[in-house]
Amino acid sequence: MPRATQIALGSLAVGLVVLAVKLLAWRLTGSVALLSDALESIINVATALAALVAVHIAAQPADDDHPFGHHKAEYFSAVMEGALILIAAALILREAWAALFDPRAIDAPAAGLLLVALASAVNAVWAWRLGHAGRALRSPALAAEGRHLWADVVTSAGVSAGILAALFTGWHWLDPLMALAVALHILWSGWHVVRGSVGGLMDESVPEAELQRMRDVIAANAEGAVEAHDLRARQAGQATFVEFHLVVPGGMSVDAAHEICDRLEAALRDAVDGARITIHVEPAHKAKPGGITVP
Asked: What is the pTM of this model?
């Protein structure tokens, strides 16, 4: 089983455990803020399931119908996660708004807060694991889920602070007010998840720093060529698609030009994980000003 799929399965298990703990905390206390926290955990379980499916699809090899692979499946998972986050925020806003005009005392606050602290500790450890795995495996689905869990940890901390404030001051309206703050925080988190995923679906360019690193690799390994230009690169899950034009002397043989291309492809694969490289060879009169200079 691929490593990314194993981690996605772990996320589903962690999500179910955390959801059970938070629902118990809400049942014990009756806190609207804890209900909002539990609603977000329901979304965590749904997105963990979506990420598991997406990671499995993305790991499938290219086929006749998908010659460039299935890498973008992970972006659909991240977009779905963002949409579910927005739905959760809307549900929380509805509950919090109603409770704001009819606040009530919180039952068994100590037990509820202890359970929330336990759930937050589990989420924090797993969020760190997901973030590390998302970067190492170049998985947008795992990275998005990790960011969402970190947001959940922050949410739980805010909820706990609001409950403590309500207990010490006797201002029971602080509980639904904190739930409203949770909803706004979730909306902000959802926007960032969706924004990053849409960029991948729209074939957004890799960052300029990454492009410059590719230019440096090309310049250092294109000995025998004249120059290179029109470098483009985009990321799709674990794959990075790199394209550029390589200008060679007009009299160069096909074998010699191919040898330069092989050298460049090997160097770029060493520098860029998951690189898929396309090089268009052109004669000297196709050179462009401002291209990548070959020493």
From this structure: 0.57
